[in-house]
Amino acid sequence: GHALHPHWLTLGASLAVADALRDAGRVAAAPTWPDTVEVADVACGGSAGSRRIAAVRVDRSSSSGEPWTVSLVVNVGLGLRELGDGTTSVYAEAGVTDRPTLVAAITREMVRRVDQWWSGSQDLVNDYISRTRSMGSLVVLPDGTGRVVSVDSTARLVVVLQDGGRATIPS
Q1: pLDDT-derived band of residue 66, with 50, 70 and 90 as boundaries?
Q2: Beta strands per DSSP E along 5-76
């Protein structure tokens, strides 16, 4: 098969981090389109009720030997005093903060998701759509207000507008 659209690499990387934090870190993390990993605030729902625990950046760079560079920032040991508004850490969420364990888990998940991306696997697409916190979110666009219903083949959010029309939001 052929690789998925390049923007799916960012979504796959954020899913890999969320999976690793959930499985090895024991933190209820989920990806949020297009490039963050969040933990839901149990007190309230919706995107306003979440805190960022990680961010992903994917760059295409010819300066290094590889065409793609994936950068990750994961808040592991930060305490409440060090955290900014709207952020959290593995420690603050009472997760497992052993760095070698987390690095091994993130690396393992990243390899799995990059392999899926490279091979064009629909498993990556289906897993992301089923896990992202962005599904069902209310969004306001120039065309009107709508709800996120999917992510398309080029990693754009698909929105169904109140009037029944459809719109996409590029990543």
Answers
A1: low
A2: 29-32, 36-40, 50-60, 68-74
State the Cα–Cα distance between residues 132 and 5, nearest whole angstrom: 18
**Residue written as tokens 């916190």?**
133
Alpha carbon distance 155, 171 (integer Å): 7
Asked if 32 and 48 count as a contact pair (C-beta separation under 8 A), the reply is: no
Pairing status of strand 138-141 against strand 144-151: antiparallel
- Write the pLDDT tens digit of every residue in 69-115: 788 888 887 777 788 888 999 988 999 989 999 999 999 999 999 99
Look at the pTM and tell me if it is higher than 0.85.
Answer: yes
List beta partners, residue 53.
Answer: none
List, for residues 10-37, the tens digit of each pLDDT value: 999 999 999 999 999 999 999 999 999 9
Q: How many CB atoms lie within 10 A of CB 92?
A: 20
Reading the block at residue 150, the tokens are 């999917």
Tokens (6 digits) for 148: 């996120």
Residue 50 neighbours by CB distance under 10 Å: 20
Residue 42 structure tokens: 């149990």
